[in-house]
Amino acid sequence: MNTNRSVSRRDIIRALAGLAGASLAAPVLAACGGEDNPASTAAPTATSQAGTGSGGSAATATSAAATPASTPAGTPAGAPATGTVGGSLTVYSGRSEQLIQAIVDQFAAASGVEVKVRYGDTAEMAAAILEEGQSSPADIFFAQDAGALGAVAREGLLAELPADVLDLVEARFRSPDGLWVGISGRARAVVYNTERLSESDIPPSILDFTDPVWKDRLGWAPTNASFQAAVTAIRVLRGDDVARAWLEGIRDNGARVFENNNAIVSAVIDGEIDAGFVNHYYLMRQLAEAGGDLPARNYIYRNGDPGALVNVAGAGILTTAKNQEQAIAFIRYMLSPEAQTYFAEETHEYPLVAGVPTDPNLVPLSEIQTPDIDLSDLADLEATLEMLRDVGLL
Ligand SMILES: [Fe+2]
Hints:
- The chain is α/β, with parallel strands linked by helices.
- The model is unreliable at 1-6, 21-29, 34-58 and 66-81 (pLDDT under 50).
- The protein contains twelve helices and twelve strands.
- The two termini are 24 Å apart.
- It has two domains: 9-184 and 312-358, D-Maltodextrin-Binding Protein, domain 2; 186-309 and 383-390, Periplasmic binding protein-like II (D-Maltodextrin-Binding Protein, domain 2), CATH 3.40.190.
- Strands 1, 2, 3, 4, 5, 6, 7, 8, 9, 10, 11 and 12 form a twelve-stranded mixed beta sheet that branches.
- It binds fe (ii) ion.
- Fe (ii) ion is lined by residues 32-33, 226, 261, 279.
- This is Extracellular solute-binding protein family 1.
- One of its GO terms (biological process) is transmembrane transport.
């Protein structure tokens, strides 16, 4: 998809702000990775000073810097760029407090940086950054999908990251212009009931689920932000006509509409539906919580199909950032072995830095041929929403 430079920043703000506003009033856009996760493992640590609100609307949390005593004098070479950085940093986060505050606290403790985090959904934070423009207090935009980073980058508001930071992550999971970098990977998956289906029953393309053989067996969550990004990917890769026909075909197959991905996974486990379209980590989290096996598995496409999309949560530094050094230290930390392990183990996402183990129950990224797409191009959410409305899904 080509960048449409004729779209004004005001139009984009209106679109993003509309999404954010609508998501508060009605389930047009559900957070993905925030509210629809089970309460679980990523509770803030004691270093958080915040008496913060719960996820959802924009809350602000502050991580206090640790005492200087916690900063070792001789930090080994190759360790993340923490040490004594000091100062402060403001992060606008589309990732929920529940998922990331703990790792933000660890960064604060390791670096001596006081971190203020404003939480909201990703579209809302992108809209805020565009609206605030030159006067935005944000140093970093930490988004849960690449499309929102692309939207902010397209407006010239993200600065180029240092090459050694970019090089930590494969090219397919970062901005081709070096303006944002993926922090963790989020694969699209078909979650299926193992008593009804085996892997060989899954068709070779996600687009094939329009076959009537799938009538009344599927579930989806059209309000889910990651689903919408996946539809945008089909639009970008195959064109609007194919995307629309796919949506109509799945709809006409009687796919059950769920509020979020967790509900889809639960319905698959309970045998209410045979399969559903989700992000991979929802099942991983339910498996971890169950502490035993469940009759469901993820099928992750690995053949370059539009269904093989791996989106990222990622971060960029604002051109207007007043705390550049702290911002770079934050991104380096999020790509450090400690933080990458946190994302692998606590949020059940894919680590994106080599050498950090992926959950053995997941297909390794090296075996997934992702579709040939610049994740920045997932920015065109408005046209996807319009299509979903036209097809009667929103
Ligand atoms: Fe999600």
